[in-house]
Design a protein that fits this description.
Strand content: under 5%
Distance between the termini: 75 Å
Number of strands: 0
Number of helices: 2
Radius of gyration: 30 Å
Largest sheet: none
Order of helices and strands: HH
């Protein structure tokens, strides 16, 4: 059996190879997107954790100021933070 190479068969083979390369490229892009999403999710989780710690720290400072006799805006800010924490804890 003898195989003859014609320009048409070479073009067909090149088209198949090109389509395969394009498919692999798209699959790699999809996997890369998922990896970036996972990395961003981890970063967001870390940011939220840090933000929660800072919020509790600020609330503690405000409560200390209230104990020292500060009034007005200090009590209002502490109240708003406590309300926000409560809403977040109960899915609000």
């Amino acid at each position: 059996m003898q195989i003859t190479l014609t320009p048409q068969s070479l073009i067909g083979a090149a088209a198949i190879v090109g389509a395969f390369i394009a498919l692999v490229s798209y699959i790699r892009k999809i996997f890369g997107w998922f990896e970036r999403q996972e990395k961003q999710d981890a970063e967001l989780k870390a940011i939220k954790s840090e933000q929660a710690i800072l919020t509790y720290g600020i609330l503690a400072c405000l409560k200390g100021l209230i104990e020292q006799g500060c009034d007005g805006d200090v009590k209002e800010a502490a109240s708003k933070i406590e309300k926000h924490i409560n809403e977040q804890a109960h899915g609000g």
